[in-house]
Amino acid sequence: MEIRLAPYITLGTGTFAAIVAPEEEILTLFTEHPELRRYLFLYISGNGSRLLTRAGDRSATFDVRRAFTAHQLLTILREAGHTIVFIEHDPTLFESGGRGMAAAIGKVIAEVATGSLVILYTPAPDRFFGEMAAYADRIITLAPEAAPVRKQSVRASRAGQATLGAF
């Protein structure tokens, strides 16, 4: 099983990928890849999810589990038997009592990835994400597409400078 994340980025079974990307890029992954519905898909979120309510149509193979503590996340991962495991990183899991757990969770994610595709996702990395991502096969950062920049003529830019200088 393979998923094309971007033109030159393909993810497959046996891979633990840590991904930093805007939410819209990941939502595109859910909406533009109908082949995901063919596989047993586990979505793990923490205390809250920024994506789940906007993920669109989900089929019966889209299982959702919520972890309220780092220990619960470990338990969910150890019990996972899905083809695709998507983990939406929640730093609040590590705030109370879970500070030393990030590395342990990273190791377990790597173990789960031997038979599955595991994606650890965050829109903004933090220390805990970094500790888990240290065990990833791939760390991927997707930047939002920038709008094309229009070139200004020299005359227009000089006029703008003169106007700015007048204030």
Notes on the structure:
There is one protein chain. This protein is of the alpha/beta class. It has a single domain, classed as P-loop containing nucleotide triphosphate hydrolases (Rossmann fold, 3-Layer(aba) Sandwich). The chain contains 5 helices and 8 strands, in the order βββαββαβαβαβα. It has helices spanning 23-31, 70-79, 101-112, 127-133, 154-166, and strands at 2-6, 9-12, 15-20, 41-45, 62-66, 84-88, 117-122, 138-141. It is globular, with a radius of gyration of 20 Å. Mean pLDDT is 83; it is low at 160-167.
Provide the descriptors you would attach to this structure in a database record.
single chain; 167 residues; alpha/beta; Rossmann fold; six-stranded parallel sheet; two-stranded antiparallel ribbon; globular
Explain briefly what this protein structure is:
Helices cover 31% and strands 24% of the residues.
The name CATH uses for the topology is Rossmann fold
The CATH superfamily title: P-loop containing nucleotide triphosphate hydrolases
**Secondary-structure element pattern, one letter each:** EEEHEEHEHEHEH
Using the 3D structure, state the CATH architecture: 3-Layer(aba) Sandwich
Instruction: Using the alpha-carbon principal axes, give the shape.
Output: globular
Radius of gyration: 20 Å
Helix vs. strand class: alpha/beta
Give the strand tally. Answer: 8
Give unreliable regions as ranges: 160-167
Q: What's the arrangement of strands in the largest beta sheet?
A: 5-4-6-7-3-8
Distance between the termini: 61 Å
Specify the helix fraction band. 25-40%
CATH class category: Alpha Beta
Count of discrete domains: 1
Q: What is the overall pLDDT average?
A: 83
Major sheet size, sense and barrel closure? 6 strands, parallel
Percent of residues in beta strands?
15-25%
